[in-house]
Amino acid sequence: MTVKAAMAEAAEAVLEVMDRLLPIPDGPEARVVEAMRYSSLGSGKRFRPFLVLESARLFAVNRACALRVGAAVEFLHSYSLIHDDLPAMDDSDLRRGRPSCHKQFDEATAVLAGDALLTYAFEVLANEATHADPRVRAELVLALARASGTQGMVGGQMIDLLAEQQSEFDHAHVTRLQRMKTAELICFSCEAGAILGKGGPAARYALRSYGQEMGLAFQIADDLLDIEGDSAETGKPTGLDAAAGKATLVAVQGVESARAHASMLVEQAARHLDFFDEKADLLKSVARFVIDRRS
């Protein structure tokens, strides 16, 4: 199966689970659930859930369990996109080819929808339907909290906002920012399969290392698309990062050097998966797909 076909199959399976997990209730609180569904169930590659499913496959994890973890990651990722698009953050009116949550609903509803998706992600992980072993569920909750909090995504976003006010930033500064903001959640998605499958330290290290390298490459690809991409393909406005003076490796290194750096990162990422032999061939191919994508 090609990477594109495998990702499409995984995206459809995860979407079905997310749809079931987000029924619209009776009563006025339905509006916030409608906003949650609007932002999380719309179009999207479901890249992080795909990584959960593929890493879980390495350990023969029950697919229903892996799908729930994938759904939780996508809920959390969707929360981050809602908040990123707010006027106080990136101030973007377009997401995945249609109005951002705060434009479709309103800013207050968008904030609440993001908050609800964040908290619901942990509720899904903590539910016994995700895994029979409570220690595994607790470990998933702990790992996702670290990846998405001040040591990860939120901390990286804070550094990103501060960087807009600085006239200079170097390679080390930007790499740390992007490891926290983007790579940590990708790392969790890769390691989640090993947590579900109770993999040993060597397996978990290999998957985390793969996720770190690929996460950085993923962000470089995003930054290149902001400069070179077409908003009709990317589904969001382009040129915003440069206009805001965002700290990116493309800004530090230049376009061609950043592209070469991304290629080196995906090669390193693939080598970490040699631990799993041919079972990880699809994950190796995904690393290259990440930097060749147009959206």
How would you name the CATH homologous superfamily? Answer: Farnesyl Diphosphate Synthase
Mean pLDDT: 91
- Distance between the terminal alpha carbons, to the nearest Å? 21 Å
Question: pLDDT below 50 for ≥5 consecutive residues: which ranges?
Answer: none
Strand content: under 5%
Using the 3D structure, state the CATH architecture: Orthogonal Bundle
| Biggest sheet statistics | 2 strands, antiparallel
CATH topology description: Farnesyl Diphosphate Synthase
Tell me, what's the shape? globular
Please work out how many helical segments DSSP would assign.
Answer: 15
Instruction: Order the strands across the largest sheet as they lie in space.
Output: 1-2
Cα-atom radius of gyration = 18 Å
| Class from secondary-structure proportions | mainly alpha
Give the proportion of residues in helices. over 70%
Secondary-structure topology with pairs:
Elements: H1 3-21, H2 30-40, H3 47-57, H4 63-85, E1 94-95, E2 98-99, H5 101-104, H6 107-126, H7 134-148, H8 153-163, H9 171-196, H10 201-228, H11 231-234, H12 240-244, H13 249-253, H14 255-272, H15 281-292
Antiparallel strand pairs: 1-2
Pfam families: polyprenyl_synt
Keywords: Isoprene biosynthesis, Magnesium, Metal-binding, Transferase
Protein name: Farnesyl-diphosphate synthase
